[in-house]
Amino acid sequence: MESEFSTADGVVTSLEYSNEGILRLRFVDWQERDVSVAFEDVVAFKWQEAEELHPEEPFDGSYEIVDSPWIAMHASQGFLDDGIRYRHLKFNFNSCGSLELICSGFSL
Known about the structure:
By secondary structure, the protein is mostly beta strands. The chain is 7% helix and 44% strand.
């Protein structure tokens, strides 16, 4: 998955969730620019500082997890809206942790 921003050496400054299903991530990137990302239709997310990488997973990048067991679990329990295509995304900030979430998409 190619994102419109780089998480390499980024420093997360805030993570805010609203009950409307919007998760806002703010961080400073490796070029000292402030980046703000809004994730839509969020049904699950987690932040962790411990590094947990799968083989071939970028330690300083982002990717989409296809055939996600996490999405399947939410679908089987009725937490996903029909008509919305959900994605399991992971953003690795090699300097401070990772954000993993299920959402429909994001915008800057």
